[in-house]
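#struct-help
A.M.: can someone run this one for me? Single chain, 101 residues.
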Amino acid sequence: MMIKNVLKVSAIVIVLGIASGCVGLPEVQRAQAAADSAARAAAAAQSIAEAARATADSATQAAANAQSTADQALSTATEAQTCCDDNRNRLERVFQKTMSK
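D.P.: on it. Structure tokens below:
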């Protein structure tokens, strides 16, 4: 039992010793450089995403304006058609009166 505990503790000490000795300054610097590069890439992606969002918002506003213009044009066209129909009916009545005399 005592030997098993000693072997376990020895294994843990060896693993910790190897782990702490394996990572040197160059490896830490490379890891830091990779992390910095990833952070810059993430910031660039965030910037691109924000620009895309602004473009989408602008396009949405332009589409809303176009829809409003189209609605106004439809209303104007409907009014013009109503006026045209009224004029045609009025002229038809005048013609009918003229023909009945």
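A.M.: thanks! Residues 67-101 form one domain.
D.P.: also worth noting: The CA atoms of residues 50 and 57 lie 10 Å apart.
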